[in-house]
Design goal:
2 helices; about 15% helix; 5-stranded mixed sheet
């Protein structure tokens, strides 16, 4: 039986909100430029679930998404070993936490 990991992914809603993910139905989670966060993205597996956290004024989890594509290169013109993953939305929370 496969076990899934659970992740907390942060976004600034002014940049990319969970409501936009719902509209898009899928997105690449890219431009992460933090070494520890990059290491976690490399560990995310297809089927894992991510709680989507809005930073900024709200500071709350607003919904859940599923990893649909594991880590692949996120090209940076300045170089670096960066990765991105693909997500699809699962559900928005009626009341953000």
């Amino acid at each position: 039986m496969a076990t899934h990991q659970y992740w907390l992914l942060k976004t600034e809603p002014e940049t990319y909100s969970f409501s936009q993910l719902l509209k898009d139905k899928k997105t690449n989670w890219n431009d992460v430029r933090n070494f520890q966060a990059r290491n976690y993205l490399k560990q995310a597996k297809k089927g894992d679930v991510a709680a989507i956290y809005h930073s900024g004024d709200g500071k709350c989890v607003v919904g859940f998404a599923e990893v649909v594509k594991e880590a692949y290169p996120d090209i940076d013109p300045d170089g670096g070993d960066w990765v991105q993953i693909d997500l699809k939305p699962l559900a928005a929370l009626k009341t953000p936490v």
